[in-house]
């Protein structure tokens, strides 16, 4: 039976995961450098979990400095089958109220200063990001969050900005006009890299504030983000445990979205034009599709 191995990327306010059996920590280095922190491994029932705090313990890394490529590569090398990302986010819609959760299903990438692909000269790939989230994992995560007591929105468009400064009022209004639901600084390029690594990925975002567009509400600050997070992070933690318990004892089948084989439709560089050094570096990420 194929088992589930869940990679959990903890966002702001989620730097540890309690309640794991057989807990151990692994310091790893990937071909793409060191991940944000040690990997915390353990299990809940027969579901293996690998936890990684995105900003490192103590929140050392800015959104721009998070080593997104190393993080996803480390999870892939650890045998993770599915990646659930937990993020704090601002709300761009009246009815996405601070304290609510969103099972994000679309992203708009406005980041500008991050490495956002594993591929490059000597091995070019164009994966589809039309449906950036694994529908099955997202549905399981949504159910797990609701069982944990969350008010949850199924679906939502997350605008990923570079930061670390929060948005201006003009930007916040623009993103609202674009139809975005929530805003954060980290889900991109994380989701793109997970797709390139053929890892099903989903984001559970916790709404912590109304950004700065709402005239009668104070503009977002770290203080009010932390305050809302303090009141609601227990829900995120319980959701992770619920998710593992739901999957416990079930056979893992491939994602219904074909994510584990997406590189079969994405590689374009002719075999004789491929760079052997890059191919070697890509083994953990794309070895299945590249062969060797
Ligand atoms: C602490 S407010 C801004 C910070 O919070 C979010 O982090 P994450 O997505 O890792 O939960 C946001 O993206 C910013 O990095
Ligand atoms: N308003 C906001 N903008 C960007 N990232 C955030 N993370 C939490 N709230 C945010």
Automatic annotation (TrEMBL):
Functional summary from the UniProt entry: Catalyzes the reversible phosphorylation of S-methyl-5'-thioadenosine (MTA) to adenine and 5-methylthioribose-1-phosphate. Involved in the breakdown of MTA, a major by-product of polyamine biosynthesis. Responsible for the first step in the methionine salvage pathway after MTA has been generated from S-adenosylmethionine. Has broad substrate specificity with 6-aminopurine nucleosides as preferred substrates.
Entry keyword annotation includes Acyltransferase: no
GO cellular component, one term: cytosol
Gene from which this protein is expressed: mtnP
Domain of life of the source: Bacteria
Catalysed reactions listed for this entry: S-methyl-5'-thioadenosine + phosphate = 5-(methylsulfanyl)-alpha-D-ribose 1-phosphate + adenine
Record flagged with keyword Signal: no
Residue spans crossing the bilayer: none
Subunit structure: Homohexamer. Dimer of a homotrimer.
EC code(s) of this entry: 2.4.2.28
Ligand binding (phosphate): 12, 54-55, 87-88, 186
PANTHER family: S-METHYL-5'-THIOADENOSINE PHOSPHORYLASE
MF-aspect GO terms: S-methyl-5-thioadenosine phosphorylase activity
The protein's name in its UniProt record: S-methyl-5'-thioadenosine phosphorylase
SUPFAM superfamilies from the UniProt entry: Purine and uridine phosphorylases (SSF53167)
Similarity field: Belongs to the PNP/MTAP phosphorylase family. MTAP subfamily.
GO terms, biological process: L-methionine salvage from methylthioadenosine; purine ribonucleoside salvage
One Pfam family cited in the UniProt record for this chain: PNP_UDP_1
EC class: transferase
Pathway: Amino-acid biosynthesis; L-methionine biosynthesis via salvage pathway; S-methyl-5-thio-alpha-D-ribose 1-phosphate from S-methyl-5'-thioadenosine (phosphorylase route): step 1/1
């Amino acid at each position: 039976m194929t088992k589930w191995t869940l990679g959990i990327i903890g966002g702001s306010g989620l730097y540890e995961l309690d309640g794991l059996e057989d807990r151990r920590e692994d310091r790893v280095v990937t071909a793409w450098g060191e991940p944000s922190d040690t990997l915390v491994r353990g299990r809940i029932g027969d579901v293996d979990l690998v936890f990684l705090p995105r900003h490192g313990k103590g929140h050392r890394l800015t959104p721009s400095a998070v080593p997104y490529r190393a993080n996803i590569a480390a999870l892939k090398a650890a045998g993770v089958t599915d990646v659930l990302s937990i993020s704090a986010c601002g709300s761009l819609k009246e009815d996405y109220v601070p304290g609510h959760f969103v099972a994000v299903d679309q992203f708009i990438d406005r980041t500008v200063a991050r490495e956002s692909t594993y591929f490059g000269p000597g091995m070019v790939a164009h994966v589809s990001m039309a449906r950036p989230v694994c529908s099955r994992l997202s549905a399981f995560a949504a159910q797990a969050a609701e069982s944990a007591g969350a008010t949850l929105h199924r679906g939502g468009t997350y605008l990923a900005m570079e930061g670390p400064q929060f948005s201006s009022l003009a930007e916040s209004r623009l993103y609202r006009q674009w139809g975005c639901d929530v805003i954060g600084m980290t889900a991109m390029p994380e989701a793109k890299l997970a797709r390139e690594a053929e890892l099903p990925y989903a984001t559970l975002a916790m709404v912590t504030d109304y950004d700065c567009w709402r005239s009668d509400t104070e503009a977002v600050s770290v203080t009010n983000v932390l305050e809302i997070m303090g009141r609601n992070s227990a829900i995120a933690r319980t959701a992770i445990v619920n998710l593992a318990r739901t999957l416990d004892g079930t056979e893992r089948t491939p994602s219904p979205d074909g994510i584990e084989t997406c590189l079969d439709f994405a590689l374009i560089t002719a075999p004789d034009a491929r760079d052997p050094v890059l191919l070697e570096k890509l083994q953990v990420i794309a070895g299945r599709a590249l062969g060797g």
